[in-house]
Amino acid sequence: MSSQPNSEELNKDKEAKKQAVTEYIAFKCVANSDIEDLRNIGACLSKGSKLDIEILTGGLCNYSFKISCKDTTTDAEYKLFAKLAFAYAVFMGPDNPLSLERTENEYKMMATFQKVSPGSVPTPYFCDDIGMDMKLLVCQWARVDEQFGNQFIDGAVDPRTAAKLAEALGKLHRVDDFDPNFNSGMSADLEGFRQMIVGMVDELCKPEKQDRFGKLAKELGKSAIVGMFDVHLEYQGSKDCLVHGDCHPFNLLVGAKPSIENLENFDSSGDVVLIDWEMSRAGCAGQDIGPMRPFPIACALAHTLNGNHHAAEECLDWIDKIWSCYEAGARSNGVSDEQLTKICRYSLQVSSAYLLYYSCWGVHMDFLPIDEGNTEDLDKVKECLGVLFVKCMKWGTDESLSLQELKDHYKGAVKEEKDRLAKAKKVRRNRRSSVLRASGRRVSDAYLHLANLERSLSLISADGSR
Questions:
Q1: Measured between alpha carbons, how far is 383 from 374 in angstroms, rounded to an integer?
Q2: Within a 10 A sphere around the Cβ of 137, how many other Cβ atoms?
Q3: What whole-number distance in Å separates Cα of residue 109 and Cα of residue 265?
């Protein structure tokens, strides 16, 4: 693995990339552009306005930017979203390249989804090469621009989003003219993933791991857990339909709440927009249902520990609603009970994988409604998520279970964990607005996917196979 650049080198590189993006977008903003946003920005620039560029997320394998320009004569502001993709992850170096085709494919999938579900994705404008080793994707700034994960942190979740999201995903999954090998380069490195899981299971089965998660893992045994993951990897080979591939609450945008003092108030539209299509590919529809459960479950458990039981129920009710709306839409479009069972089964497998990342790596756990430094409550939540990982993976890989049994087992297990935490006597804590909202931060998944890649490469390198 290449040596990592120091902070001075990183900052210099960051500024150079910002400058390159600014100059290229200014070049594209011309009076005869067929894109209205670019024409408007071009007009502002001709009057002496300047482009403002703000890094939203990234730094490992891409940067995401907010590009804005204000008309000095009218105060009208025009905004764009831009993603600059690198040919390799900064901390891994050019010896482990990442294909820039991933960004071209992200652009193509956004265009496809825009056709089947207009308004459910920002309109993509262009995807161009920048130099020899970068690609720039520019699209419309979404009309709703707050990450949906904030609402679960609040414990006040807009129920309208479930039906709208289920309808949009259903339309994507019914696209019948697609290349089964589309964006296949972004599929998991299955052997590396398996070795990573084996390493994690080894840690879980150590004698010193004595919480309920560890005891349950040791009760099942390493071979049984790895065997369940082998079944999961077989499902990953499905190419039934197009999928977003990473559809969790931080890759969904909704309207900002009108007031953070009254968290039950939502924006008037109830719209939801899907972003970050880099992992899109052909797969099983369950791939897009599974990632939506774990963070709401984690928030529900945290709200339960805080004594905010209504907030916990709002999180869990939304999960139930997204599935019921998706199932109803699928049935009305001729999806069989057998197909729905496969979708539900695989969605539980995917949920369990995210639950494992949450429990063992602490992914997204910094954003839970738990006071900073309260490791006792955080550990309780992570223990519950670990138990749910084992149970969901076990049921999700059991092909003898019916659709109703899968749904009942899942709901029963979550209720059991919630009830366990509810027994802890706590003074009810007032809910407060998401700290992410207050900070203006956006959550990026780059570190999660690159962490997977780094662990996989390290494991494969260790056994000499690469």
A1: 15
A2: 23
A3: 33
Whole-angstrom distance, CA of residue 149 vs CA of residue 291:
12
- What spatial distance separates the first Cα and last Cα of the chain, rounded to whole Å? 12
* Nearest in space to 288 (alpha carbons), one of 317, 318, 254, 249: 249
Of 317, 293, 315, which Cα lies nearest the Cα of 306?
315
The DSSP annotation for 344-393 comes to HHHHHHHHHHHHHIIIII-TTGGGSSS-TT-HHHHHHHHHHHHHHHHHHH
The tens place of each residue's pLDDT in the chain, 466 residues long, gives 455 667 888 888 899 999 999 999 999 999 899 999 999 999 999 999 999 999 998 878 899 999 999 998 898 999 999 999 999 877 667 777 888 999 999 999 999 999 999 999 999 999 999 988 999 999 999 999 999 999 999 999 999 999 999 999 999 999 999 999 999 887 766 667 778 888 888 888 888 888 999 999 999 998 999 999 999 988 988 999 999 999 999 999 999 988 766 666 899 999 999 999 999 999 999 999 999 999 999 999 999 999 999 999 999 999 999 999 999 999 999 999 999 999 999 999 999 999 999 999 899 999 999 999 999 999 999 999 999 999 999 999 999 999 999 999 999 999 999 999 999 756 556 655 566 666 666 776 544 544 444 444 343 334 433 3
Question: CA 302 → CA 149, 315, 377, 423, distances in Å?
Answer: 14, 11, 8, 13
Upper half-sphere CA count for residue 300 (Cβ side, 13 Å): 24
